[in-house]
Design goal:
The chain has 289 residues and is α/β, with parallel strands linked by helices. It is built from eight helices and ten strands. The chain is 34% helix and 22% strand. The chain starts with 21 loop residues before the first helix and ends in an 8-residue tail after the last helix. Bound molecules: adenosine-5'-triphosphate and magnesium ion. Magnesium ion binds next to helix 2.
């Protein structure tokens, strides 16, 4: 990891000269809405209600974190917004239109970086642009911009197996950002990283998404991570997942992991979660209908 490029005091990467695309500056209106979304999975042995009548609205420029017990339907919810899965009931809307397939305006970043091992970092970042039909010089410009933004310039010729876990996540983030999506959908992207790398990437992600005004839905099991990153934390119930509560995080940025306000709000979110987790333990499997 190119740690020497970080500011020694703030541990943030140096600010590249970068201007947010004009359309993202107009933050505020509703960008994504789930209206009473339910998802059943029917298999030969089980009929599972994964999420149950979820209504959620995310505004342009907002950073929303979703926390909830394992199996409560967080990935299912994210996949529906991504257009990789579809509701059994209710509707999922993006910019007022029903989501029926994946699209360049909604890009997913997974826990395991989905990068092509036979391509180097730059080629991985450019591939999505090529598929989108973007010409060579524009591809180069966008790849330059986003590889710099995630601090991978020195490693742009490296192949994926030559990268650390944190670098792979940076590469995945650069590839996602390069197509300039209106919404990033992140499913536990830092879960497999060591604690220090995770801290650094949380700081970088705060910096990058604040600068770009990217709208983000971020799923995590780590309550403190949610409070560091989010404008709003959405807490889900154990399966079948419903929305339990939403907690606004009105703290100034950047937010450090050890700030008192972060620790206090994390304790509040954790209390909401734990109450349900204990209740769910005695009712295990009751959601298989
Ligand atoms: N393709 C599928 N077929 C059948 N059942 C599924 C499918 N995908 C998810 N489920 C079920 O839906 C429920 C919710 O799963 P999901 O992966 O969304 O949970 P999660 O909250 O992301 O869990 P985790 O925190 O462990 O990642 C689970 O009971 C799971 O078994
Ligand atoms: Mg999941």
């Amino acid at each position: 990891m190119a740690s020497e490029t970080f500011d020694q005091e703030t541990r943030l990467p140096p600010k590249p000269k970068f201007e947010a695309p004009a359309e993202r500056m107009a933050a505020g209106g509703e960008l994504m809405a789930l209206r009473g979304v339910t998802r059943h999975f029917r298999t030969r042995r089980h009929d599972t209600l994964a999420i149950d009548r979820i209504s959620l609205s995310v505004n342009e420029g907002e950073f929303v974190c979703i926390v909830g017990p394992s199996g409560c339907g967080k990935s299912t919810l994210l996949n529906i917004v991504a257009g990789l899965d579809h509701p059994s009931g209710g509707e999922a809307l993006f910019d007022g239109r029903r989501i029926d397939r994946p699209g360049r305006e909604r890009i997913v970043v997974f826990q395991e970086p989905a990068l092509y091992p036979w391509l180097n970092v730059r080629a991985n970042v450019e591939l999505g642009l090529k598929i989108a039909g973007i010409g060579r010089s524009e591809r180069k410009r966008l790849a330059d911009r986003y590889i710099s933004l995630v601090n991978l310039r020195r490693f742009e010729k490296a192949y994926i197996h030559e990268l650390s876990g944190g670098m792979k996540q940076r590469a995945q983030l650069a590839r996602a950002l390069a197509v300039e999506p209106r919404m990033l959908l992140m499913d536990e992207p830092f879960a497999a990283l060591d604690a220090q790398t995770r801290d650094v990437l949380q700081q970088e992600l705060q910096e990058i998404t604040s600068r770009l005004k990217t709208t983000v839905i971020f799923v995590t099991h780590n309550v403190r991570e949610a409070v560091i990153l989010a404008d709003r934390v959405v807490v889900m119930t154990p399966a079948p997942g419903k929305l339990k509560t939403e907690i606004a995080i009105p703290l100034p940025r950047p937010r450090g992991p050890d700030s008192h306000a972060v620790v206090d709000l994390a304790a509040r979110v954790r209390t909401e979660l734990q109450h349900d987790i204990y209740a769910a333990q005695s009712a295990e499997d009751s959601y298989a209908i």
